Amino acid sequence: MRAVTIDEGRIEIRDHPDPEPGAGEVLVRVRAAGLNGGDMMQRRGLYPAPPGAPQDIPGLELAGEVAALGSGAARFAEGDRVMAVVAGGGQAELAVVHERLAMPVPDALGWPDAGGFSEVFTTAHDALFTQAGLGSGEHLLVHGAAGGVGTAAVQLGGAAGARVTATVRNDALRAGVAELGAAVIEPEGFEAHGPFDVILELVGAPNLAPNLGALATWGRIVVIGISAGAQAELNLGALMGVRGTVRGSTLRPRPLEEKAMAARAVERHVLPLMEGGAARVPIADTFPLDEAEAAYDRFAEGGKLGKVVLTVD
Amino acid sequence: MRAVTIDEGRIEIRDHPDPEPGAGEVLVRVRAAGLNGGDMMQRRGLYPAPPGAPQDIPGLELAGEVAALGSGAARFAEGDRVMAVVAGGGQAELAVVHERLAMPVPDALGWPDAGGFSEVFTTAHDALFTQAGLGSGEHLLVHGAAGGVGTAAVQLGGAAGARVTATVRNDALRAGVAELGAAVIEPEGFEAHGPFDVILELVGAPNLAPNLGALATWGRIVVIGISAGAQAELNLGALMGVRGTVRGSTLRPRPLEEKAMAARAVERHVLPLMEGGAARVPIADTFPLDEAEAAYDRFAEGGKLGKVVLTVD
User: Fold this and answer.
1) Cβ–Cβ of B236/A248 closer than 8 Å?
2) CB pairs below 8 Å between A and B: how many?
3) Residue ranges of chain A with pLDDT lower than 50?
4) What is the pTM of this model?
């Protein structure tokens, strides 16, 4: 099979042996696979794939048809449309996925949508609800809301009855995020729009102190992206004063059972939104697998609303 | 009535008008009232009493007999032994307490024990269980474990089936904390004894970075004391890596209903431990009300195991 291959920072398409599904796994003929920040970090050598995942084939999410079943796999049949978060190896013609991590693709989602759905919606749903316990009537702030996770979070927050405010740095993307249901503001001076019950932090360390200053009593900050830096200052007295919480989270290193729990939560609480049209996967651009390097460059240059997705014929 | 009075940093005994119980309140003839870190901060002008509490009479906890009932108060009868967390004014011959904040004093507790129970056991129980969700089999670290909250937390953690490790700076107090059920270690190099599922932080900012380094996956740090400093450094990447949580908490500014919930939790889950002898209130020293200044000086000099309590004849 052919697959995107990272070799010392270069993105190439190379031939690899076809993967074989192990016990409880399905082999997927990939039709679309989204790009994520983790792929960019892996390209730079900063985010090695965990043990057991392909080390040189990136790709944290995929969608396609089940092509073969490993021993004991029983959730899906050959030909079923599935999508999943994977620990790596998604950007290839074939990939293996544990059946407990795979979700059925709703009819409402085409291949690019399905290929760009799993990582960002699972990340956003887990952060907002499982980690932060976002509730109806609360005020949610999403930092860096124009990207894949941000656009997912804005929609999920609104669907849950939260009031959603979003920071977007790029002027050109604000209208698109507003269409998804957020009150869009500039990053500078965002504190004036609080207090916020939940803050989804996708930017990093420089935001932590102003986040805390804008946090409501019993508020929760969930940090899932640190592109602007990791080393933050935290005033513990201020944190005590609002009985606040700062939580960090990431999906990739979690064990199978925790990822499967996250997939089940998305099946139950997010797929109905996609089927009913209450949420969608904003796609900034698609590229065929052969143009993976261009797709990576497009992702890295920023200024996009939603996902960059590779498609495979 | 006579009461401890703070006047520009001085601790004196002065006459004050007798307080009168309002709707839903009880008047308590105080028999014992513990000292807490908050009193020391209030003496230094750093921790003013919240609105509605006596501004110049310190005291965050008390025990005594119900002397009169305000209109509608129905939980207790005159003469009942009660104890409570109060927002201020506890170190006096008389004090008013909302009946929803008062707890019955178990027979097993004498007056000094009861007077030093409420603030520290409520703080420790709320932090360990309501905030951090400490569970059986988890590894708990209590920093600064020789004080009132620390000795309460060590006992509550052990009673809940957690494995308890405790840092104690003062050599002379280690055996006493070990008797309460903790593996006692020096503060320096505590990280080597982890990983810890829950860390109760009573010291402050300098501990935050090593705490994070010693935190187990899904671990929770609850900060309830910052005597060593408030401004901490937090590496968000490390926090994400362990899916960790840093929470700050304090009881005093909470509204009545939240304090009442905390009191009900202590009644249900802690008073049975006191009645059965599974936990006790370590008393470092008692002083009569007239010697309040000596009691404050004793508290401030440190090196004590458990509580300093004022007694009233």
Assistant:
1) yes
2) 102
3) none
4) 0.94
